Amino acid sequence: MSQVHNWQLGRPMEYPYEAAYPSKQFAFVFNINRCLGCQTCTMACKSTWTFGKGQESMWWANVETKPYGGYPRHWDSKILELLEEADPGGMQWRGDAEAKKPYGTYDGKTIFEAAKSRIGDHQQVALGYLPNDDEWVTPNLYEDVPVGPAGRPDALHSQGTTLPAHATWFYYLARICNHCSYPACLAACPRKAIYKRPEDGIVLIDQERCRGYRKCVEACPYKKSMYRGSTRVSEKCIACYPRIEGKDPRAEGRPMETRCMSACIGQIRLQGLVPIGPDGEWTEDRKNPIYYLVKVAKVALPLYPQLGTQPNGYYIPPRWVPRQYLEQMFGPGVGHAIDAYTRPDRELLAVLQLFRRSNLIVFRYEIEPGPKVWETQTAQGKFELYDDTVIAFGHDGKELFRTKVEEPVYVRPEKHLNSI
Known about the structure:
By secondary structure, this protein is α+β, with helices and mostly antiparallel strands. 19% of the residues lie in helices and 21% in strands.
């Protein structure tokens, strides 16, 4: 095992290969507070990439209802149980956030470090398991099923709606492959068929080298590498890389968002490319919206950072869910992220308007100040709303679009085309 630096954990960790980093990294932010659970993203991906024979149970993009839902079934609770068995009580964080340790320091074992101590049928590179067939065939099991006080059907509509945490709650977790900086699928593949692209960090499987051993399926803690029985090889999300390269005819050579991103009607998604330094840290890019949301505002958090893969998918956590559950899923930055989102400052409020305003990837933004249009008093203090204009720029520095913080309101006249 080599030593690599995982900035999400705030410390070095063990990994089978020496550190190597792309020049830019594909990354995304999902705002869970906005997700409708409509599955439009799921079907956009399915109709584009996984509609063939042998792909019936392949869902590269999916939306799960937490806390009970998951695809494959209970994927996250199972990997957390394995990690707890290998390192009892070890999933703990300490220390305050700082520049090099935005979430403090993780003291527990990662899936790579825990694998060495696990005794099983075979030695694993990354702690993991193979889901059985039944776990792959129910992508919508427990959809819209809430958790709450037993025998209290009125809880959701009485005291259950009181923030900061509801007594009865569920939320939608949209997922794709995280295209991790330290992919477990890549580490576990005995054929070296899995690789990260040096130009954008997208993780791909070489279909000619793959022999379908399913080591990647076993090792990926997010279970986003999937086996196709009809071809006997594994497949996974490819981040729609032809669109990232600008090869979609509608893009006219400009980097374009993935199918699942561009189909999102809830406007929960923002995708981008962040520059990576030789040490694996994100190079400062203050006006890149992904960099701003993750590194500056710290409102977007990685999914299960304690697993150690350094995922490049980030989530703005839901406001109404018990903090202990969210901290298990997104780490110790949850409190700050929810506070910042609940009472956003002027810049954050403007950047949040960039979500789904274009199918093209935003590389930089600028904000033109506007007039103050509203103010109120909250529990945290005074809140002021400014109708600023946020301007988005593409990879070539040219303007893509501009939009305002306050959306216009249109009142339909009494007489209109559909009047009877």
